[in-house]
What does this fold into?
Amino acid sequence: MDILQNFLTTGFFYTIIRVSTPLIFASLSSLIARKGGVTNITIDSTMIMSALTGVLVSAYTKNIWLALVCGMAVGVVMGIFMGYFHIMMNTNMILTGVAINTFTSGAAVMILYAFTGDKGSSSMVKSMGVPGIDIPVIRSIPVLGDIVSGHNVFTYVAFILVIVVWFLMYRMPLGLRIRAVGENSSAARSVGENPTKVKLIALGLSGLFASLGGMYLSMGNMQVFIVNMTAGRGFIGVAADAMGRGNPIGAMIASLLFGSANAVANVLQINSFSSDVVMAIPYVVSIAGIIIYSAHEQQVKEKRIRKEMKEAEREEKTYGKNSGNHRL
It folds into this structure.
């Protein structure tokens, strides 16, 4: 009963929003790349490098804005770097992503050690953080104020960007070009589009969104960089994008679902449950979500195929009758 009460507090729902923030950024990052026809599996490593960059730049320059700009720049560069090898050098995108992820995991430790003398975290240097915001009107509302108000700036930016990405994809020329190239690059090329350029732009934007998720972890949620602090959130973001079926709103809802699993894990850990079991919960939910999504998509595909076959049979019968009448 005590555990159940922990799930019914405003703090629990506040935690869901907080832990869902990097997942929303990661899912939007995956969505933009996938709309452009590329599966970006370097989101997690991009988050790591941007998180590290933001912390180090803020620590040595004491300029939070410069740190944010540098972190975002690293994200964009990594996205384009992925695009250069996959699109222009025609390498396999999965193998390219694996290579970049492997390189990044070692490079992050090397850079961290070079600037801080520590291979585990940036605690040896004092970095700056992005503050939280109390929303004036909402914070005075009982219950709702405790859940919605007081979050980090990154959190509100994440939810705003969900709407921005929706407008970008479905109402703006750039989004329509990205979708056109992703669906059929040959057809897009035939009407004057440059698929290579559009895909590089999509991957640059993908890297930008991933960088925001990384910097939230090291400059918003915490004010320190820890090696592997993303804990696979980039890959969970890819899963959230898949469950959202390429829709920003759907990706956000899926991210909140996975965030809920994280929040549940936090509550169970506080109540002395086995740490191994608790840590596995978010990943188990991610796998279960993908399985359910894949099964649903397979059912939809089979229904569509059966419908198309019935329509083809109907047309064939109609054509046969018309041909017989014509011979008579």
